[in-house]
Each structure stands twice: as structure tokens, then as C-alpha cells.
Amino acid sequence: MAARSFLFVLGSSRAGGNTETLARIAAEQLPPDTEQRWLALRDHPLPDFEDLRHPERRHVQPSGNAETLLRATLEATDVVIASPLYWYSVSSVTKRYLDHWSGWLETPGADFRRRMAGKNLWGVTALADEDPAVAEPLAGTLRISAEYLGMRWGGVLLGNGSKPGDVLADTAAVTRAKTFFS
Fold first, then answer.
1. Is the distance from CB of 100 to CB of 60 less than 8 angstroms?
2. Where exactly are the structural domains of the chain?
3. Of 44, 71, 119, 146, which residue is least crowded by CB atoms under 10 Å?
């Protein structure tokens, strides 16, 4: 079996929040030789997405943070979107990252669609609501994105928490985290 490489894309506006905590618990269960790369979108801000797909628009090669995120995304076998649930979906910085996927489909030499096919896409989120159904739009965004690119959808790990550290009291989520990537 080929070695797996996990990219954890952190979409929270704060470091060490509940979503990141839950993702790190899940990641601790990976085999020790599994490569992990953690990129916080707050530390790698992307420019506003500009749709350049039409022939009259010239697509430019990603640079800076966009190039870093593109390369990291393509190099991973598993992409984990760790975004808190904000207004029933992914955070704005996470949505911007996913919007850039549209541009990367057109990036010369990236071959984004072909290279993403067969990878695994996972979601991790913390929500401040007792009803897990409120996270369905977030899960749907990620699941349908995976389907569109021919990726395998690994599901979403849900945890409950509002203040930092609250998710640790969600014993069911912590238990699920320990087998989430298996």
C-alpha cells in the first residue's frame, strides 16, 4: 500500500479552537510514519477568487499562498477540511480555498481534476448546536466537491463546542475521532 500523506486545512479564525482540537485527536491515531501537513488558512490568506475560466480571460499561475496551497493539496493523498460550522456551512476562508479549486482546474500544468481523483476528502467541524443536522450544508458542500472531482468522501467528524476546549467534553466526538481515519 502506498504511503499516505494528510493535508489538514484549518479554516478557523483562531488557533487551537474546537475544530482543530478534534482534528488533532483524530490525527494522533494515524500510524506514526504517516506524513501530516497542517496549514492554517488564517496564516496563508488567499486573494479574492476571480473566475478566469472563460476564453477571453487569461489564467495566471498561482503564486504566494495560492501556490503553497495548490502544491500542498496536490501532494496529499488525503485532504482534511477542518472548518468550524459558521452559519451552517464552512468558514469564509475555507469557502475561499474551495473557490480557488475552480481556478486550479484551469491552471496550466496543474492537471488538478485528474490529480485530485482518487484522493480522500474528509471534514472535521465543531458546532455550537445540539442538533447535528445543522451541519448538513457543510457536509454537503464537501461531499459534492469530492464527487465532482472523483475523490473518495470519508465523511465528516462532528463535535460540539463553543468556547475553546469545549469539544473535549463531547466524549462521543472524541471517541469517534479515534477511529475516524481508519
1. no
2. 5-177
3. 71
